[in-house]
Amino acid sequence: MKEMVILHTGGTFAMETHKNGRLGSGVSVVEYIKTHIIPSYQDLKIDQIQLFNIDSSLFTPEHWILLAKKIRDIYDDYDGFIIIHGTDTLSYSAAALSFMLKNLSKPVIFTGSQLPYFEKRSDAFSNLSASLEVALHGNLNEVAVVFNNSAYRGNRVKKKDVFDFDAFYSPNFEILIKMGIGLEEHGSLFLPKSDKKLELDIRLCRDILIIPFFPGLDFNFYNPVLSHNNLRGILIEAYGNGNIPSDNSGLDELFSNGSEKKIPIVVCSQAPVGSVNLAIYEAAEKASFYGLISAEDMTLETTLVKLMIALGRYKTLEDIKNFMIKNIAGEKHFN
Q1: Nearest Cα residue to 222 out of 246, 247, 255
Q2: What whole-number percentage of the chain has pLDDT above 90?
Q3: Which residue from 100, 87, 193 is spatially nearest to 138, judged by alpha carbons?
Q4: Catalytic residue among 12, 111, 302, 303
């Protein structure tokens, strides 16, 4: 008999209506799952652990670390791990664990819901059941997200909808498993099962500045920030394929200051579908001169988390750049 554990972190899934009529953290979902869901799985032993019970907007990198440490501590006790998580920052957490948990040989599955478990039309338990089915019968050995009968690579997803039950999508990577009457696995896309011992690497640095481009942006606003001693990295949300203004003195000054201080500058796209190519436009010469790093087809969420990880693990600009351009956990196209 396989053994699974449900790790509760909160989110809409577990919320209840408070006296003021608003949704907030609930306390009854663990008991509800114990009495209504677990008995349905006669061929599976399911434990539950409540790590925390918060809205996912309150998640910080410290929560990622606690979650990763808990999985490390109980890794040998279970065949799979289901993490109930709020949807708003789920993609960040899934990306973080994909880098922190090295040499996975078991599924680590994030899920959640658009409606709380007590609502008549809630998607909470259909998502939980689908996650258990993937963990029990699937062949995944990586961090994944299961939502609306689809399993996605964890570091490839974005939240796309706040209204529909089909809340997530993977803009630059195919669905790993589609669930209908059976499980339709796209096994050629799966990460290989590791035969090495699980390793945990929780080093990170969150001292990053994100700059979203928009027409008329005065880059001089950001230049004083570069004098901040704690600033370690910059993430630029550029246009299209990574297009950047080629004749903006404020941006040149920002790039120049960042280069002098050896601050890595990573460029991702505001367009979720496609890949950054810094060699296409006239600004390519600028990108090359200042050593800008392309995020290629990574999502914004994964690019940010990966940069945090890179800054935590490495000190030199060269090592950070090499980590960012390398495919570590299936987060980008293979080089």
Answers
A1: 255
A2: 73
A3: 193
A4: 12
Beta bridge partners of 250: none
> Model confidence over 230-274: pLDDT tens digits?
899 999 999 998 888 877 888 888 888 888 899 999 999 999 999
Residues in the chain: 335
8 Å CB contact between 134 and 115: no
Task: Say if strands 23-25 and 150-153 run parallel, antiparallel, or are unpaired.
Answer: unpaired
Tokens representing 262 are 């050896």
> 69-98 pLDDT, tens per residue?
999 999 999 999 999 999 999 999 999 999
Q: How many angstroms separate the CA atoms of 265 and 233, rounded?
A: 6
pLDDT > 70: percent of the chain:
95
* 86 neighbors 55 (Cβ within 8 angstroms): yes
**Domains contained in the chain, CATH given:** 2-200 (3.40.50.1170), 208-325 (3.40.50.40)
Give me the residues paired with residue 101 across strands: 200
Q: Within a 10 A sphere around the Cβ of 186, how many other Cβ atoms?
A: 12
Per-residue burial over 23-55, b if 16 or more Cβ lie within 10 Å, else e, is: eebbeebbeebeeebbeebeebebebeebebeb
Check if the beta carbon of residue 44 is closer than 8 Å to that of residue 26. Answer: no
Is residue 145 classed as helix, strand or coil in its secondary structure? strand
CB atoms near residue 246 (< 10 Å): 14
Bridge partner residues of 25 (DSSP): 15
197: which 2 tokens?
């011992």
User: Cβ(83)–Cβ(55) under 8 Å?
Assistant: no
pTM beyond 0.85: the answer is yes
**Average pLDDT over the chain, rounded to an integer:** 92
The predicted-structure confidence for 115-164, as pLDDT tens digits, reads as follows 998 888 999 999 999 999 999 988 999 999 999 999 999 999 999 999 99
Query: Is 12 one of the catalytic residues?
Result: yes
Amino acid at 35: T
Dig out the tokens for 81 from the structure: 């791990």
What whole-number distance in Å separates Cα of residue 208 and Cα of residue 316? 16
